[in-house]
Model the fold of this input.
Amino acid sequence: MVHDITTLEEFTELINNGKPVIINCYVSWSGPCRISSQMFETLVSKSLESNATASILRKTPDIAGGMGAQVMPTFVAYKDGAKIGKVTGPSMASLQQRPGASAGRLA
Done:
């Protein structure tokens, strides 16, 4: 499941809900971000186990900045409130291979 995070409260609740979460931080005006976001949504729909959630931060730069997202796109994986992986740049191959970023490594 992919959905937008619009508040800090929603972000905090999501990363602390006991399920693995992948956050995609991106800017809508960037071509590479738009392409990687589409690929990310496809990856999520095909690869993540039912107990994993993926979310997109669109208009919440304060949250993205707090996650250390200085390059867009940045993908950050969390489990039980702890950061377990991070991938920067539009490479889906990197996202699939980094610890904490695929369903098998998140679960």
